[in-house]
Please model this.
Amino acid sequence: MLLKIGELAIEINRLPSAIHFYTQEGLLKPDSFTRGGYRLYEKNKALKRIKEIERLQVNKRFTISEIKSYFKNK
Model:
């Protein structure tokens, strides 16, 4: 099921601003768009990616730039 940012935020217990930020930084990519241009995300895929981003930030103390490089080389 595809969800808009607000719906996704509620489903995965994150702030919509965090999802927006990860998307703007290129760390999280929408799976689709509505006709009106709203980003749509698949819940499980987005949650897995966000958890990985958070793990890198917290456990490895990676910066956003380092996380971008990590995903680019993965």
Q: What stands out?
A: The longest helix spans residues 43-58. The chain has one domain: 2-73.
